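Supplementary notes for students who missed Thursday's class. We covered one full example, reproduced here. Read the sequence, then the structure, then the short commentary at the end.
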Amino acid sequence: MTAAPPEKPGRYQRSASGMVGAMVLLVVLVGGFVGVQALGRDHDVEPVRTVDYRPVAQQARTARTLFVFTPDPMPAGWRATSVSYVPGRAPTWHLGMLTDQGSYVGIEESLATERDVVERFVDPDAERGAKVRLRGLTWRVWTDRGGDYALVLSTRKQTVLVGGSAGEKDVRALVGRLSLGNLRSGA
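Structure (token representation):
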């Protein structure tokens, strides 16, 4: 029996440096493809939509359980971006807005205590500040280390918080424009 001739190695010589070179080339090509794709995309995550809060505010005012403060009129360049009213035994009113500079201001109303509302919407470690008189009402200033500023109106029946990242000037200006909803009618 004759032995089979020994197999000859292929012409292509495999080496570790050749394999590393091929991997580098592949990574560069994939990276270039991803980069070109990224150039064609809009880099905004998703535009924040504007909402019409008035129908929801009217519904909430009809229930007569909360004041339902709203801007009247909305400051120039500002827009409402979120609104909600939850009726029932623990009603809540929320109106979220972006200023003309893109900072956030929200109006939060509920039957919860001042402390509970501040902990939820400002910071658990928020600092209590002075009282200020705006629109004939006494508001309490609350701030946090992150730069949030809020004014809180606390009555025997409910708590209203107006605040956010917009800062003192914008929050006070908004309070000066509030339609006081059911406040005058004794909600």
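Commentary. The longest strand covers residues 79-86. The CA atoms of residues 67 and 185 lie 9 Å apart. If anything here is unclear, bring it to office hours.
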